[in-house]
Write a structure and sequence with these properties.
mainly alpha
Length: about 90
Amino acid sequence: MEKFFLSNIRAIHRGQIVSALGIVVYFLLCAVKAPEIAIAVVLVLFTLFAVWVLLSVIAYPDRTEISYNITWGQGAVTIMLFAVMYLTLKSLI
């Protein structure tokens, strides 16, 4: 199971950056009035990635390297992406 998660703190930091870029990409797609299906696909992909990074943060073996800022920050980004994804998918159905 350890091979599934990100293995070092540097990879987790990069994962957090990509997760946060998901929110930026969402705002950009909304600004250019992209089709909602394209926005939904992007949100699903970034949300799944953010959940994977959050699980990697939670399952990281050395808790001294993971600060509360990393844990809460990734949790907040994941919740925001999930909420926007849910509302976008709900509007499509």
